[in-house]
Amino acid sequence: MQQDGTTKVPKDWLGGIRESWRVDLIAAFSVALVALPLALGIALASNVPPMAGVISVVLGGMVTTLIRTGHVGINGPTPGLITVIAGAVISLRDADGTSLPYVFAAVVVAGAIQVLMGLVRMGSVGNYFPSSVINGLLAAIGVIIIAKQLHVGVGNNPAGGSALNELAAIPNSFADTNPFVLIIALVSVAILIIHPKIKSRFVHFVPAPMWVLVFSVPLASAFGFFRDHEKKFLGTSFGVGPKYLVSLPDKLLEALVFPNFSKITTPGFWLVVISICLVATIETLSSTKAVDKIDPYRRKSDLNRDLVAVGIATMACGAIGGLPVITVIVRSSVNINHGGRTRWSNFYHGAIVMAFVSLLPWAIQKVPLAALSGILIFTGYKLASPKLFKDTLRFGNEQLLILLVTLLATLKAGLLLGLIAGVFFALIIHWLWSGISPAEFLHGVFRPNVVNEETDATYYVRCRGLTNFLTLHALDRHLKAAPSGGHVVVDLSTAKLADFTTLEFLQSFASDYERDGGRFELVESSATSASSTHPFSLRRFQSHIEVKERQTRRQSRLAALCDEKGWSFDPGINWQTKVESEFHFFTTRPVEYVENAIHGDYKELEASWLVEDVTFDEGAFIANEEHHMTILTISLPLELPVFVIEKAALIDRLLNYAGYAEADFYPVKDVCEDFDVKAPADQDARAFFTEKVLEFLRSHELYHLESKGDAIMIFKMDRLAGAIEVERMVAWGREFTQLILNCRA
Predict the structure, then answer these.
(1) Is 506 domain-assigned?
(2) Is 204 found in the same domain as 124?
(3) pTM, whole model, 2 decimals?
(4) Is the dihedral of CA 717, 722, 728, 732 positive or negative?
(5) What domain range includes position 527?
């Protein structure tokens, strides 16, 4: 630990080897014990040679480590690609029955696309898919894995064909169960279930998949799996033998398969490439972000560079017959839990697996397929567990519907069409929920309205219209430009809709931004209709809601601020807006209602103030636009001239030069070049703007400021203020009121 109590970040690269090689090596050994059985199982379930999974572990560890920025993530093969690779083995088969060279050619091309995506900085693309769609895909993959491996777990081969065909064939497969194979599979699953419940530190140091092998290999020996023969169970004979064990070539170089690109011009080839690239990219980016969150040293990965790293490793794997490489969250968690500190634990785990396979291939050949089947069945269950559906329902009924549609479409039509179906269904849900016309919805999707404004104190981002996963790229672009350590405000109050993906993304951004010393506020309209009580639930922002079922997070923050300061807070809607309408700004912009009123006093100055959110209209009929903003009005104990003052802009100078006047407010000349001042012709506004007043306006946060004689009003156009900004506005008002009184004294 450092003296300030913060965690000391380990050194990287060569410094990391010198400083952390012991702990990294120990963690890598534990990870290797997980990676090896999973790699074998994933490869066999994908209908490719077992060495394809081993190659992915070795190159995933030893190649990506030298390129990526991630520190504690582990790279290798993933169960998520089992269905894609297994399907490719069938779809790319030629007339001679050969398919593996074409499959690995597709792996190489998919890796190359990932490299290009990283180079053009598309590392954030994983943010733009709805969480429920991704969970639906993973749940479907889990169901498919279970369906295939249930056949293996009872001693039979998968039925082949579609996922639904695999499910339909399960009863027939169960009717032809080999009990000795089934016992090994059941023991394997039982170990995986019991392992987390055992408190022994030693038991937990050895990962559960390795315990499966520790128990299953002796069982295979006891059942006589090492030679072909018949063995009786309850009076019935069943065949046992090496066909139920992992098979490796005597010479490992014989396991290499080199790619054949002759099918690169066929649609089927590119369908496989796109499927591999999509799944591998989404899972890698999601896992990398998840690993960053559990990194004890809070280090951040460059997603673009990490995408390049896994792309290069995937190309290398495909070139010699290996599965695609991704960042794997489960193995990364094992690495962190076992003390891994630097990138080198990933390198070491690849080297350990390579050494084990090279030196002890005979040991791997004694591993029963049923044990690997048990590991994969448990993995499939984790991907499609009841908890997933229960948690998704908490996010909102529509989220569960999206997940189920994606799951069923994937089972019926495959992964790529399942993804498309899930995204399309999510858009339909969003359109129905938003309550807007199809044309307006499509306009919002393809032309997102996101703008930003930066001042010395705040970086403000406003989203209008539709805000969902397809428009998230625009919001992401603006937030990436936010200054570090500043104050960021994201205003959704003028949005028609905000979806789970957007709100989840904002929460993640807020967490990272505040962790790095910044401040973040999310501003929403209180007139909100949400699909559930979850903070990320799909929500529609409306204009005319008289009864509000709950307070927004912003209202809760405002209420807490008022409790702290002794101010009064009324979150209700007030349709009586006579006072606000007396200000010049609202003469052509009728106020519809005000809400979230905060009352207070500058007692020593004998002035009272009011902060409130104003909803007003600009334009009329089909050109009508609704606006929301927070204003501060101060009732003064003296009379001021009526005026409006704003920061001078070129357009104002041109309009003033042209003699433009707005509702009898004329330019006040010779006040200051920095500001544009307007006032009625009968008001002596020039005398009010002394050098002290102008210096205050130059040196303090800039607001639109106007006076109606007995009160002044300040605001920033078209935006609702967060709690921190409200506090700043009130403080600004106190200083300005004090200045006015001093100047008049």
Answers:
(1) yes
(2) yes
(3) 0.75
(4) positive
(5) 409-550
Tokens matching residue 245: 């064990």
| CA dihedral (380, 383, 384, 390) positive or negative | positive
Does residue 270 share a domain with residue 150? yes
Within a 13 Å sphere around the CA of 741, how many CA atoms are in the beta-carbon half? 14
State the Cα–Cα distance between residues 307 and 123, nearest whole angstrom.
7
CA pair distance 502, 524, nearest whole angstrom: 13
For tokens 């419940």, name the residue: 197
* Residues listed for the chain: 745
Instruction: Tell whether 539 and 683 lie within a shared domain.
Output: no
What the block records as the tokens of 440 is 């307006």
Cβ atoms of residues 142 and 406 within 8 Å: no
Positive or negative: CA dihedral 26, 27, 33, 39: negative
In the prediction, which pLDDT does 5 show?
Answer: 39
Nearest to 76 by CA among 104, 55, 46, 48: 55
Q: Please indicate, yes or no, whether residues 523 and 588 belong to a single structural domain of this protein.
A: no
Q: With pLDDT > 70 as the criterion, what percentage of the chain qualifies? A: 92
Each residue's pLDDT tens digit, 349-376:
999 999 999 998 888 899 999 999 999 9
CB atoms within 10 A of CB 160: 13
Looking at the chain, the number of H-run helices and the number of E-run strands are 27, 20
Which residues are registered as beta bridge partners of 417?
none
566 and 534 within one domain = no
List beta partners, residue 612. 631
pLDDT grade for 163, boundaries at 50, 70 and 90: confident
Contact by Cβ (8 Å): 141, 163: no
Same domain, 573 and 444: no
* Euclidean distance between CA atoms 310 and 64, whole angstroms: 6
Which stretches does DSSP call E strand in 579-708?
Answer: 591-602, 607-618, 625-635, 643-647, 666-667, 675-679, 704-707
From CA 440, how far away is CA 437, in angstroms rounded?
5
- At 745, list the tokens: 């004294």
Q: Are 627 and 618 in contact (CB under 8 A)?
A: yes
Phi and psi at 73, nearest 5°, equal -75, 150
Which residues 6+ apart lie within 8 Å of 190 measured at CB?
none
Cα(first)–Cα(last) distance of the chain, in Å?
Answer: 58
For residues 655 and 642, give the distance between their C-alpha atoms in angstroms, rounded to a whole number. Answer: 21
Reported as type and span, the H/E element at residue 474 is helix 472-480
